Amino acid sequence: MTERIFLSETFQKIRENLHFVLVEPQSPGNIGSAARALKTSGLDKLILVNPCEIDQPEVRMLAHRSLDIVENARIVSTFEEAVSDKKLVIGTTMRSRHFKFPLFTPEEICEKILAAAEQPMAIVFGTEKNGLSNEQLLQCHVHSSIPTATQNPSLNLSQAVMVYAFTFFQKLNTHSAVYTYEPASQQELEKFYEHLGSALDMIHFIPRDGIENFITRFRRLIGRSMPEHRDVNLLHKLIQIFETRIQDLEKDSSLPPRDIY
Question: Cα–Cα distance between 17 and 47 in angstroms, integer?
Fold first, then answer.
């Protein structure tokens, strides 16, 4: 049994900005089922990254009365293309990774979506076999996982999409946004991390566990804070102040390499 629920004004804004991204889905059935899950939850933005052939009977059968979502889906070649303009990128994973980002439940993710209701957002799901790669997860602002009684078997792709879609529909359709702001895009954050890396190289800073792990800790800190565009500009400005000072000092003397920290 189902009951039709009218969508609130806040949820209408969210559905215009929230994109469900499936990275390299290999099962036509999962694509069709995911579309149906979105439709029943009042959502309709689907992005497919390098998917399998979607013009198949299995897609049409499982996307029952939701085929329009598949037909209107944006198809891109890379993960980066799918998320580059998004102000909030949520990466889903079934397990904690070595870089230990906090894992938020679908319910907790609702608060972050509500805060960015008027900004382009994406929740990203990895391949059926391996999920998102570590590299892809590091390009997500926050990470989320569905609590389950067992790790194996885990939910399949379309089931996970259904859990998130319905949770968002249920939790966000009764709330009203208190404050909205303009988070920085993932592309802006990547440029900051590049700037940070070049500044550290400029002073010959060599962390004990390597520069990549050092930058990852900044990704963890900054990603979960959901910085605004102006926050990222401020971070750039702070680094530029130090760069200018170092350049002034180097005019008078050559700075020796720094010790490993």
Answer: 12
Q: In the chain, what are the domain boundaries?
A: 9-172, 186-252
186-252 CATH: 1.10.8.590
Question: Do 189 and 222 touch, CB atoms closer than 8 A?
Answer: yes
**pTM: predicted TM-score of the whole model, two decimal places:** 0.82
Q: Is the CATH number 3.40.50.150 carried by domain 9-172?
A: no
Greatest extent of the chain over all pairs of C-alpha atoms, in Å: 78
Q: What is the mean pLDDT of each run of 10 residues along the chain (261 residues)?
A: 77 96 98 98 98 97 97 98 97 86 95 94 96 96 94 91 97 66 91 95 90 94 91 95 88 58 46
Nearest one of 212, 184, 10 to 86, comparing CA atoms: 184
